[in-house]
Amino acid sequence: MKMKRYKLFLMFCMAGLCLISFLHFFKTLSYVTFPRELASLSPNLVSSFFWNNAPVLSPSKATEELHRMDFVLPEDTTEYFVRTKAGGVCFKPGTKMLEKPPSGRPEEKMEAGDGASSSARGPGRPLAPRRRVINAININHEFDLLDVRFHELGDVVDAFVVCESNFTAYGEPRPLKFREMLTNGTFEYIRHKVLYVFLDHFPLGGRQDGWIADDYLRTFLTQDGVSRLRNLRPDDVFIIDDADEIPARDGVLFLKLYDGWTEPFAFHMRKSLYGFFWKQPGSLEVVSGCTVDMLQTVYGLDGIRLRRRQYYTMPNFRQYENRTGHILVQWSLGSPLHFAGWHCSWCFTPEGIYFKLVSAQNGDFPRWGDYEDKRDLNYIRSLIRTGGWFDGTQQEYPPAE
After folding, report:
1. Architecture of the domain whose range is 65-75+130-345
2. What percent of the chain is modeled with pLDDT above 90?
3. Considering the entire predicted model, what is its pTM?
């Protein structure tokens, strides 16, 4: 009996100690915020849970499901052509419209048309029904250039497929800043044309071999993005760019409106470094586009295969030629003297260049982010000012127009 009372007493004592400890812990939490307590333990631990202290967004079903929503491609009803009384079809931007007829002469009426009555479909003939254009991009922190892209191509591209990951190309955690900007109204003017793709994992082996990570970004972007596009047609145009590659509007519009060109196609782009003020010699020819039919049949919905120029080694290359009756020959919009786009490499603030250095994949050597002196902001500012490169060389730049 005495032993039972002793055990009961010990049990009550232990329960009391647990209650006191719990109350003390609860009181401590009221004075110290949980994220700040975690920060004192490990910065990496915080970043993995709180996305480097990114602002917390008010949750809603629309934003939570942003990376699962489908996108229905609309029909482009813009009137790009006018028809004369004599039956001619003219491209509006190249047509001079008379507001008033000269005195004594009858007025020639210009009516809108799309060339649908034309029986031939070849270069110089307007295409009906009109193709839709899909522009696919991977984004890290190139938000200024993304804004430039949206303003340059916003009225001719029908869907911008933008992929963002919670990992850098090096495999480190990063905040979902583009998702935040989509939901806080920063890109409200173009959001109706954006399909958001979220890459929530880092590829196996990507840390040891950076090219695995680099390739996988484009593979996932293409396969996830295209699978969520509805009302897609085989002759719709697919263009995949790096975030610092911006095709010119006129070239993209030509692909959209006219038939008869071969595929795949490339863009000759004006090269710039650190900003458009440092124009580099020559052009960058980027193979980046084809029809959706070729993307699916020849490239197996893999964007990195399209970028590699080796369409003639793909298993279904001949099958696609035989089925469509088209001979596949790569061609380019623009030339080294007449650019069809812009490639602005390392075009950031000094802080943005620093982030690019430490985010770069582990394969494009030398990886300048591994050198402490190259990450110094004053050193980076001097490169922007002089146009120099990280290896100490200085280029001769032609005048920038």
Report:
1. Alpha-Beta Complex (3.90)
2. 56
3. 0.77
